[in-house]
């Protein structure tokens, strides 16, 4: 039967309601058979990616803590080396000034 005969026999509202019902059925069928499996697979991949991102974030946090610790310890080492070098410089200056004092005392005699 063609659409014109169905409209003349049952009326436009009934034919339109049946057409809309078929459209809803077709969309539901397409969504459950085509889209739902793809969404399930995409959800599985999404969960795996989220887990990887969490692992990378944890690795970055650990690495950042290690870098901060190394920088802190290196800063202490550099400060210690600076203090030791300053002590040596002061000792050399003190010895030089003592040598100058003894030399000048020897000249005065």
Question: How would you sum up this structure, described in words?
Answer:
The protein has 109 residues and is mainly alpha-helical. The protein has one domain (3-108). The chain contains two helices and no strands. Helix 1 (3-10) packs across helix 2 (12-108). It is rod-shaped, with a radius of gyration of 44 Å.
Summary, kept brief:
The chain has 109 residues and is an all-alpha fold.
Largest sheet: none
Q: Into how many domains do the coordinates divide? A: 1
What structural class should be given to the helix and strand makeup? mainly alpha
User: What does the radius of gyration come to?
Assistant: 44 Å
Helix percent reads over 70%
Question: Which features characterize this protein?
Answer:
single chain; 2 helices; 96% helix
Topology:
Blueprint: H1 3-10, H2 12-108
Helix pairs in contact: 1-2
């Amino acid at each position: 039967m063609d659409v014109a005969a169905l409209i003349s026999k049952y009326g436009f509202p009934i034919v339109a309601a049946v057409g809309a019902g078929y459209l809803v059925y077709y969309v539901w069928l397409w969504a459950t058979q085509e889209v739902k499996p793809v969404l399930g697979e995409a959800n599985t991949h999404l969960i795996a990616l989220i887990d990887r991102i969490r692992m990378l974030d944890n690795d970055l946090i650990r690495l950042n803590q290690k870098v901060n610790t190394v920088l802190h310890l290196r800063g202490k080492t550099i400060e210690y080396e600076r203090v030791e070098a300053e002590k040596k410089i002061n000792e050399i200056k003190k010895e030089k000034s003592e040598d100058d004092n003894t030399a000048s005392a020897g000249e005065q005699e």
